[in-house]
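@channel sequence for tomorrow's demo:
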Amino acid sequence: MKENTTIVSLHRPFHSPLWVARWVCEYLYFYKPKSTKNNINAATFFLWYIYRLKKLYSKNENINEYISRKTIEEVCDYFDSFHSNASKLKKLEVILHKKRNDSIDKHIYSTYKASTYAINLAEDKLGLVAGVELTNVGKQLHFYSAPNTKIITADKVIFLRQILEKDFYFFVPYCLLQTYCKMGFDLDKAIFDFSERYYPISRFDYTHCSHDNYTKVRMQWINQLGILTENNKLRQWVRNEIQNIYSLQFDIIQKQIIEFISSKKKQSLRSARLDDMYQVYMTLLNSSEGSGYVNLYDIMTKMRMGYERFNSLLQLYYDERSRKENIFLINIIATMDVRKRFVVRGKPVMKIKIQKKL
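structure tokens (generated this afternoon):
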């Protein structure tokens, strides 16, 4: 396993169903297609793929979250009007290389892309295929004569092993973090925070808004393989597989998860305390008249804190909220006040004014 092994690009929904990767393997196993470029002919596979999906729908299997039954039937009906595979392939090539205005052309193109993602899942993501040959792992899958989406237990083990080999440092922490989702953590944000802290990936944007593709695809894999119990803990067979192959790495990640969750809890408590301070400030501000400044001693009294604790909270508030709020601190008061000043970044202060940045 390579260091910090992680799959860095996944498409939702086309990378979601693991059974399509098995389909690619079945296609190579039963049909043994020839290729001069030493890779799967995507167009030929596409025709096999759409009619296999149509047959699946004829058995009333519900996979509408993948490609809708209506779309598949429309695409198959369109190609049924051509009498030979050669004419079908020729028409497909025309559609792929022209501007697509008609709905049927768009459906054909999107379905074709789905079929290429199936090939990519089997080859690049899971290592079940190499060129037009099955890898040793791909040959271990159990094939069926009829199309279906069922993954038997023996194949679940194979898929899990390949996911661990290719995606260990994202998939395993994501599984382990599921246990803590009931604590109110944003699970999707937590896994990227964990990854950035412990296993950073070069040239990866950790703030990009499309990250839900990565987590939702992996969540589909978790559900399809039955990785977790009802209490969101690893099933014993999964834990055994991980420990048998990656015992050291697994122990390290478990310790890092505990450390990470502990820091998240502290961060959550700290954030709640800062929110309390802002609410007290707003309460005092609304009950007073003037320039918007509130005496810090009044806030401290309302929060029932001593000087040292409140001064630390004040400093923390300034450090953490300055990016989102305009925070003004002054040492000017209307009457003589001999009480000890609070200190923020080395400067004595007595009053605060907070404005949310637009």
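heads up for whoever presents: The chain has eleven helices and seven strands.
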